[in-house]
Design a protein that fits this description.
This protein is α+β, with helices and mostly antiparallel strands. The protein folds into 6 domains: about 5-60, Orthogonal Bundle (Helix Hairpins), CATH 1.10.287; about 90-345, 2-Layer Sandwich (D-amino Acid Aminotransferase, Chain A, domain 1); about 350-435, OB fold (Dihydrolipoamide Acetyltransferase, E2P) (Beta Barrel), CATH 2.40.50; about 470-540, DNA polymerase, domain 1 (Orthogonal Bundle), CATH 1.10.150; about 545-635, DNA polymerase, domain 1 (Orthogonal Bundle); about 665-735, 3-Layer(aba) Sandwich (Rossmann fold), CATH 3.40.50. Helix 24 links the parallel strand 23 and strand 24.
């Protein structure tokens, strides 16, 4: 079988598997089998770029990062739906609908015929389970469709000639963000419609995170000492706004269609129930438990029946959407300024219980974030016993006046994550005590940073990078390739040393003391002489990386690789940096008067720190923890002088450097350079190296297997250099 035939067969099998899983709810292959076929397809496509197809299943893994989201006008507004919370309000809405339509009797919906009934009753299972819809025998002139209201993020998918061309969020209803690249990673979103769809078809629906995936994501976040997401909807919204689509794909978002935007030809559909019957034939999943109702009594019965069944669904549903079936009647009913009159959402209330708040523990995560955690008397909510709940931050505690000893109201946000809503003030005992936020880290007693938003505290962090609560992750970062680049000291080796030996590895300086423990390292499982010697050689080489690498490797908040390089250009060594005043650390953020007051030259080099971040970094530099860190690093021979120092003079790049002041993007594989070393070289020659191509990019350097960045550069008319042109443009001394 030729490569072309293999590629076509794999694409077909994977498309069919997606349809079987997301549309028909009848999986045709295991996840492992799907992943193996996808990997094989990716290999074949990489070997045969001439067979590229934008609708290939491999495009779902995510493309290159983007700089931001373009805001685009909707072809038709995406309006919100009015909510209702009780049966009386549903009846009142239905009465208004019937009254308005009674004035326009010719538009009454004809009674569904036998063919429509058979199609409706024969509809396959979907993500919601068995379809319990039915076409009533005596449907009057107005029919209603009830379908589940998924608690997700509204999207509008635009297809032209069957191909997906754009995906927008709801935004403000008139304009939304273009999240096409992120939405392409959602396997339930068809990249190309099947059958014979209308020439233009905008499918509107809901993106969501399935419950099982949400629980998996939160387990992983908790394992990484990150605060768990409050509910699937917030997590889904945040996921869709990621700038790197490759971070979206692992979240495994789902999608269900529930309506239309623009359609050409406009008369392709006459009823909403027809849309729900037809979209699965195009490959778009819909809610299978929708029901066609002939009266408000049937609507109420559906709402009650579905309330008992929704807990068994694999994703969060917070209500039922009820709408008039006939599109002509919908047009007659029209809209208010913000919502359609022909549609309403019934919202189920969240289950709430009261219990006693016994105490609040302070947890420190790997990023240093200090999270208050409620410890309560056990209470049964939504089928599970709840003893703990995140209080999120100290600003929320103060805002809600939550105190230890209070009787508090607890609910499960999104029916999954327990949260404290607030205290029952009339039951507050005299012994209740205000919760006092920690002034220093509860683990290491190091300095803390308080983050504010509109005057309210949103986070409190320990800024000591050697805090024991953070040290494992900090060590892994410290030894990483882009930081100190210590060959052989990866995550597994760090864990093995810390867990299986008596070798101290609790501080950054301990990394360089590993040279004193060669015999103990050799005694570890699978640590032979060659591996140990390579590790110790890597440790020795790391001592001479220089100030920029050390600062970027420490994991100090607000000081990443780029800021560390800027600081190293301005300060000759760690002592010089320690002498800097806080205003000197933020020269570009000062007013003319402030620069004059602090005797700072207006041409002073940028440090990467501003009004909010410079005080935090300055406080860290002068904290006992930082003093100890730099003293220990110096004692083990780590060089803390700068390799990049140019003072407050002009940039060191030669004035005739072809890279001076240019925004450069690297893509593909180069034979003569590793990506990080080339980036450093170009920056030393005056370039600003970024990760994505935009209209502001000046130059793209493309090696072998360059992908979408190269395509975008060509489309924008940006200058592109290959490796030969790069080598010719480099100064003689910079060439390999």
């Amino acid at each position: 079988m030729s490569a072309k035939q293999q590629i076509e067969r794999l694409r077909r099998e994977l498309h069919e598997a997606n349809r079987a899983y997301y549309v028909d709810a009848r999986p045709s292959m295991t996840d492992r089998e799907f992943d193996e076929k996808l990997a094989r397809l990716a290999e074949l496509e990489a070997a045969h770029p001439e067979l590229d197809d934008p609708a290939s299943p491999t495009r779902r893994v995510g493309g290159e990062p983007i700089e931001g989201f373009e805001t685009v006008a909707h072809s038709l507004p995406m309006l919100s739906i009015d909510n209702t919370y009780n049966e009386a309000e549903v009846r009142a809405w239905a009465e208004r609908v019937l009254k308005a339509l009674s004035k326009d009797a010719p538009n009454a919906t004809p009674k569904p015929g036998p063919k429509a009934k058979r199609a409706k009753n024969a509809q396959a299972e979907s993500l919601f389970g068995d379809n319990d819809g039915h076409a009533p025998d005596d449907a009057p002139g107005v029919a209603f469709v009830c379908d589940p209201k998924i608690d997700g993020v509204a999207l509008s998918l635009r297809y032209e000639q069957g191909a997906l061309v754009r995906v927008l969020t709801r935004g403000d209803g008139v304009r939304g963000d273009d999240v096409t690249e992120n939405a392409r990673t959602i396997r339930a979103v068809p990249l190309r419609l099947e059958g014979d769809p209308p020439r233009v078809l905008e499918i509107r629906g809901e993106a969501f995170i399935p419950n099982a995936e949400f629980e998996r994501i939160n387990r992983e976040r908790e394992a990484d000492d990150l605060e768990p997401f409050m509910n699937p909807r917030n997590a889904c919204a945040g996921t869709l706004k990621q700038l790197d689509p490759r971070k979206v794909a692992p979240r495994r978002l789902g999608f269900v269609a529930h309506g239309l935007g623009a359609v050409e030809p406009a008369d392709a559909f006459v009823r909403y129930s027809q849309v729900l019957e037809t979209l699965p034939r195009f490959g778009a999943p819909v809610g299978g438990s929708w029901s066609l109702c002939s009266s408000v009594e049937e609507v109420i019965a559906y709402i009650e029946r579905f309330d008992r069944a929704r807990a068994e669904l694999p994703f969060m549903v917070d209500g039922v959407v009820v709408r008039v079936d006939d599109f002509a009647q919908q047009r007659t009913l029209g809209y208010t300024s913000k919502s359609p009159r022909w549609c309403i959402a019934y919202k189920y209330p969240a289950e709430r219980k009261t219990t006693k708040l016994l105490r609040v523990d302070f947890q420190v995560g790997k990023t240093g974030k200090i999270t208050p955690r409620a410890v309560m008397e056990p209470v049964l909510i939504a089928g599970t016993t709840v003893r703990h709940a995140s209080l999120h931050n100290f600003g929320l505690i103060a805002e809600r006046d939550i105190r230890t000893g209070d009787t508090v109201i607890v609910e499960k946000a999104g029916e999954i994550i327990p949260q404290v809503i607030g205290p029952v003030l009339e039951e507050r005992p005299k012994s209740a005590r205000k919760i006092k936020p920690p002034e220093s880290c509860p683990i290491c007693e190091g300095p803390v940073e308080i983050e504010l938003e509109t005057g309210r505290e949103t986070a409190r962090r320990c800024v000591n990078p050697e805090c024991p609560a953070q040290i494992r992750e900090k060590l892994i970062w410290f030894a990483g390739r882009a930081q100190m680049d210590i060959d052989g000291l990866g995550e597994k080796t760090i864990d093995q040393i810390r867990e299986e030996s008596d070798i101290p590895l609790g501080h950054f300086a301990d990394v360089f003391r590993l040279q004193n423990h060669r015999d103990a390292l050799l005694a570890l499982d699978r640590m032979g002489e060659k591996k140990v010697d390579n590790l110790l050689e890597g440790v020795q080489q790391a001592k001479s990386r220089g100030l920029a690498r050390v600062l970027g490797a420490l994991g100090v908040r607000h000081v990443g690789t780029a800021t560390a390089k800027l600081l190293a250009r301005k300060y000759r060594d760690i002592d010089h940096l320690m002498q800097a005043s806080e205003p000197e650390l933020r020269p570009k953020a000062l007013t003319a008067a402030e620069r004059k007051a602090h005797n700072i030259d207006e041409h002073a080099l940028e440090t990467g720190l501003g009004r909010e971040t410079a005080p935090i970094f300055h406080a860290y530099l002068h904290s006992p923890a930082a003093q100890r860190t730099f003293k220990e690093l110096r004692s083990v021979g780590v060089d803390l002088t700068s390799r990049d120092y140019i003072g407050d003079g002009e940039r060191a790049a030669a004035p005739d450097s072809p890279f001076a002041g240019k925004k450069v993007v690297l893509t593909g594989t180069l034979e003569s350079f590793e990506r990080e070393s080339l980036k450093e070289l170009l920056e030393s020659l005056g370039a600003k190296v970024t990760g994505s191509v935009s209209a502001k990019t000046d130059l793209v350097i493309a090696g072998e297997s360059a992908g979408s960045k190269l395509d975008k550069a060509r489309a924008l008319g940006i200058e592109v250099w290959d490796e030969a042109r790069l080598l010719a443009g480099l100064p003689q001394g910079a060439r390999p």
